[in-house]
Each structure stands twice: as C-alpha cells, then as structure tokens.
Amino acid sequence: MKRSTDAVIDLTEGSSFEDEPETKKKKKEDVKGTKEKETNESIDLTKDDEEVATSSKAEMERCRECEFSCRSYQELRGHMYTSHREEEKATGSWWCEACQVKSLNERNHKEHMEGIKHAKRLKDTAKAAKDKDKDKNKASGSNEKVVKQKNGENKVLQKWKCSLCGDTRASKGLLEEHYQKRHMQRMPRPPGQGPAPPGANASPEPPPTGPWAGSGAAPRLPQLGDAAPDLPSADVFSHPSPAFRQRLCPDPALFQPVAAMLARPVNLQFATQGAGRWTKLTEDMVNLFNSRQQRTDTMEQKIALWTEIYRAVRTDMDAGLFVFGSTFNGFGAEGCDIDMCLFPQGPAVSDKQWLTRVRSLLQRHCSHFIKGRIELISAKVPILKFYDRAGGLEVDLSVNNPTSIRNTHLLFCYSQADYRVRPLVLAVKLWAKEHGINEARFQTLSSYSLTLMVLHYLQSGVFPPVLPCLQEELPQVFHSNSTITSLPYEPPPWSSRNRQCLGELFCGFFTYYGSAPRGPFDPRTDVASVRRGQVLDQRDCEEFARARKLNPGQWSARILLEEPFDRTNAARAVCSDQKWELILEAFLATREVAEHGDQHMGLDAFRPRRPPRRF
User: Fold this and answer.
1) Which of 35, 371, 545, 564 lies 20 to 30 angstroms, CA to CA, from 19?
2) Which residues contact 200 (CB under 8 A, 6 or more apart)?
3) pLDDT(393) > 80
C-alpha cells in the first residue's frame, strides 16, 4: 500500500521535538515575573471592605411602603405587621377585621368574604358576644329590684337568689325547684336533716304541709347574708361512701317479723278437735312439727349471718343478697342449711367470676366466723359452700337466680294459708327419709318435689280444697316477671272450709298417689300442677317444652311435677325404673297401713318394717 506524502508533511509541521525545552523555559520566566510584580504592589484593605459593604447592601430586604431595610425576610414581615397594619385598615384596603387577614387583591378579598371560614368566624364571634352580654346582665341583675305599676301603686318584686350558685329566680317556688333539681341530687345532707332550699325571706309564708305539718313552724330559709349551708362530711368522698351507696335491698332486719311468724308452734288442743279415729296420728304429727321446726334463736342467728355476709359483700360492690329455700319458705326443719342468692350490679361477667370475687371478699372480712375453707363448686349452677363457725350452719351461695326467690315467696304464702300445711309436709318428708326415697342425686324424690306433691294434693286431692291456687287467684302478685325486691311476705287472704284433721289428710295423701292406675292420679300421664291447682295432661306439657326448647325429654320421667314458674318438671331426676319401683312400693305399703289402721295408730305405724333397699 502506498502512503500519502502530504500526510507526512502535515504531521511534522504541527510540532517540533527539538523546540520543546525552550518553550518550557519561557513559561517559567513569565510566571516568575508575575509573582515579583504582585510582591512589589501594596495591599489596599479599605477597598475590600467597601466592596463587601456594597455587596451586603445589595442583598438586604427593603420595605415597599417605607425606607426600612433588614437582613431577613422574617424581620421584614414583623415590620409590615406592626407598622403598616393599622394604615391598611384605615385606608380601606382588602382587610378582614373578623378574621384578621389581608387579601392580595379585590378578587381574593371577595372570595374570602363569601367563604365558609369567614362565615364560621362571624358566627362564633356573635355567639361569644351574646354569652358575654348574658353573663354581664346576670351579674348586674342579681340584686336588682323591678318596679311595676299596677292599680296606680308601685309594687316592688324582689328576685330570689340562690346562695350556692348565684342563680336568680322570679319566685320562691321556682327557687325551691331549682334547689331540688340542681343541688339536692349532688350534695347529700347528713342523716336527720331534711332539704332546706336557700333563698331570701318571704312574707307571708303558707302553712307547712307534708312531713313538716304538725312540727309547729315552717323551716326557715337561709338569708342572703347567712353563712354557707352545711356541707356533707368528709366521708362522702371515701370508698365506699355510705352516702352514695344504694340501700340494703332486701334489708335483713325487715325479715324479723317473718322469722317470728315461722317460729310459732301449732296449738295441739285446737288441732285434735274433731279428729276422731285419727286423734293419735294427729297428735304425733303436731308434736313432731313443734319439736322439729326452726326455733326463734336459730332464725335470728341466720338473719345475723345474712347481715354479716351482706356487709362484707357491700364493701366492694353494689348487690342484692337474698335468702331463699327452706329458711323462709316455711317448710324448713331445725338444722337445715341456709341458701343465699346474690344479684350483683356491674359488668356482664360469668357467675363463676362473681363468686370468685365474693370468695375473696369473704376471706378478707369474714374469716373470724367462717369455719374452714370456702369452696367454689364449678357445676352447671356454680355455688360457694362454707360453714358458719358459731352455729355450724352450712351456707350455699349462688348468683342471679330470681326464680328461686319467687318460689320461696310462693311456698311461704302457701305455708301460712292454713295451719295444717306445714305439719303435713314435715311428716311426709320424714316418711320419705325413713323409706330411703328422698335424695334427688340417687334418682329419687327431692325435698322440694315432696313439698309440691303435698301442695297439689291439698289443692285438688281433697274437697273442699285446703289450699287455693294463688297464681290463679292473685296473678298480679304471683307471676314469672314479678319484682323480687317487693314481694309481700304476709299470709294470703284465704280461709278453707275443709275440716279434715291432720291424720286424715296424711292417710289420704298416700291414697291419692298410691292408687295408680285406677286412682285419681296416674303418674304416667298426669302432671301435678300447683300453678293451675289441678291435673294437667303430660302431652300438653311436653308440647309446651318442645315449642320453647325446654328439653321436652324431661316429661318422660316416671313422675311429673310442674314447676310453678318456669314450667319444667321438678321430678325429672326420677328416670330410673328400679328407683321408681322402690318409690311405688313405699307408697303402696303405706296406703295399706293407712286403710287398715285402728284408732291407736300413730306415726310409728308408718315406718318401714325392714331397711329400705339400695340399688
């Protein structure tokens, strides 16, 4: 390949390697001369300061309205706000006095004036001004006298002022109403002192009425210059404060008359009048009842125990504590346990949690009279079980069972309706215990079931009936939604025309229930109902339970007893054929003794001839 001669010539013309040392030497000489020149010249410091001042002056912020200048924009904003704000408002610029803001132009000012924020500010400003005027008028008119021209005479009307808060009212009645609504609900007065509404003196005053009538003089109202009214004592702010706690509901002290009523014995001479061939049996039943019933001192001991437990529970919670069961239903014997039910007010927690809290309170406050440990039984219906050290009483405490309270009240009223009821129930319970058929846990009859059987028998098994049907006669008192805190523990208005003695009624009880299937009561198809006072059909009760999902299988038990309020089967535990055979055998044997006994027959004749069988 042939190279171009011109290209070679151009490359050699651009640089010369021989001239390079001379060029470098010349550049060094020029740099040296420049340094010597700078050294010989003098340095002028004033010139530099002037240049810095000139440059700083150019960077300072200036006010457009005046000759003021500053180093920062924030200082300039402060100057504009303090120096030119009043000038802008005076000259009628686009300034909003309500919102304390300025617009840049007329259009922005118009949009602001029509906006939501400006309207809200105007509304708030007007409301504040109105409240201020109201307070001013209220303060200035507290001691004001209004002069009215009426019938040509000047009548002076004085406004009534409250010495507690300063409010005024047009009349004494309005002032008393204000005092009751505003102050009496917030400041409880000490015991024994009634409400004394403050206000000015009025003349003349009407004569006292209500609780003050007969006291001789109406209470004097405090004057404007009087000392401050009595304030509550310091204990109202303690925990728990008695002034703000609800009263005892129920109050155990109110059951003292009930206890005295239940401890009365039966008059033996009155009970044996006209007894005839059942005189010995009637006499034995009366003596048994008078010796086995709860004594007055036992009832008072139970009420005292009730009060102490109630006091311990109320140290930390508001609750109602009831005693139910055999203690107050009239059918308890000496030595029976005491059943309690708690109705706490508070958060919706389980019954077990409430009982755990109560157990802690009892351990803290009642250890001096509770014997042993407090046992929490976690069953379907949890209970606390413990023993009283002084009287040896067993206590069972449950939670939220209003049906048990209504049942206790109903049974109490039946026990007081006729003197023959309680001795008859006690004799039947003793008979069942001797024959070994009085334990629901062993699938036999419970004490409550035996009581219902006797009550039903006295309603529909004899004529004339010994007992009425209280739920039919007095439905406004005895119903499933009654208020348990206001149930009247008084004898019902009833007088029976039946003149049968206790012995005759006792024998008739076994004839009524032990003559199946040809007798008046067939346990396979008949339901003994105290609620209706008659026999019901088993199919109707089963259909009712099925419609309300109340376990219709319970109506397949061997004997059917309707609960008075929740309409379940009280004898649903009797579901074993072997146990029912044992119960039926005891009824049949006792019926034979009752039908073939002589006039000297007593309670001993109804005892079993051999020990009861155990399965």
Assistant:
1) 35
2) 158, 160, 161, 221, 223, 224
3) yes
